[in-house]
Design a protein that fits this description.
single chain, 4 domains
Amino acid sequence: MSNDAQVLREARVSSALTLEAAAALAGIEPQEYQALESGEQSPSPAILDTFAKAFGLTLTDLLLGRAAATPSSLLFRSFRERGPSLLSLASSGALTTLGDFVRCVRAVAEIRDILGVHRSTPSPLERLGQPTPPVADGLVARAEQHALAVRNKLGLGVEPIDSMIGLYKRLEIDLLFVTPDELDIDVDAASTVTPAPAVLVNLVGGAEGWWRTRATLAHELCHVIFDRALFGTESFVMMSPSAERAQSSERLVLPPTLELVEKRARAFALHFLVPRPELTRVLARRDPRSESAVTTVCQHFQVGRRAAVNQLRNVGLITDYDRRRMLANLPASSLPVDHPDARVGVIGLRGGLLKDLALRALAEDKMSAIRARSYLEVPAADPLPPAPGLDPAKCAPLVTESERVEKSVVRRLAGAPTLADCYVDAISTDGEVWRVEVAQAGPNGLTAGIPRGFVLVGPDFQILEEHILPRREN
């Protein structure tokens, strides 16, 4: 068995993945994955890198056999009793995005070390509470106690929180934002504390739905404080399913332990954003079932309608019947468009914090352009984005597009014995597809080559078609 095949098998088995789930993580069919794992075929670097990304690893770390010790691997193992849900997440690309989130968090930590940027010791999170396993009995009541205790330690009292994004900055929790184009709508967010506290938010309703972002950030705050040692280790990535689909028949089914964790986090978030003492004060002498009461809660605490109604039920001001009736009625939002939590900055795993740090390191000559491109996944033929203080020359492409096209075809020619004496004779493009003329070396060398045909190369520098004649004798 080859080393690549052994690496793939050990990563899959140690993570309790089925062949189907592992194939989905690698972006290939199960039959092809099985052939790779058995050594019948050799995986391409692209397949290996895609698989490594799902584990939050670089390609080098995957080949060194480090998959089993990753936060992603532990998440996969936690799903061993919920195979269909895991396969669904793998097939949708959600697990690959979560793994890439972990990889980006590691990259941020590495670049901070390069820049000499140090975080507070101990972490501000450690002052807010100790990791606590969720217990079913009295779970919601304890979640409320946790929320009020965290508020008191932060000096927030019971007043509305102006900005959850601002609070995260104060707590030194890195924030990354994506959209459903990158992360499946079944997943609201993810969080990890290894190697540093970080949260990924899926902006399902767009940045303008800031009340949803506030609820998500309050939810993830519970995870990074109280669930940071889940399963006995801090090397874990928490995934939060969509709150809006929690009651749907299509909802993501979690293992029992993670279901408890999520239930506690949902209760914590509501009590953190809408504390009971202030809620009862604000609604004094009001009918909590009225539309004006819901509007007041939304505007005072800066939360969405669903959060307001759910919290009214949590504290016993309305019944389950009232809750269902009030949620069935969805009037136009009474909340303003602009809000501090709507200002999420650049969206994308590599579009915000990671990009800023990598380009800063490049500008300060603490990182090469090649390494910066590796962190940001910018192809050699593309320019790096500009940044304050960064010499434009450092942003220039390392190779031209035509050079990349030529390299793709040269690799193809070198890999086929019947084409070994061929070479690239000319390159042209119509703006989308490249046409590469191929010639066979003649008796007098390249200057008297014999035309053999052409190869078409796509915008991603992958070969689309080959039109090459059989070898001709000189």
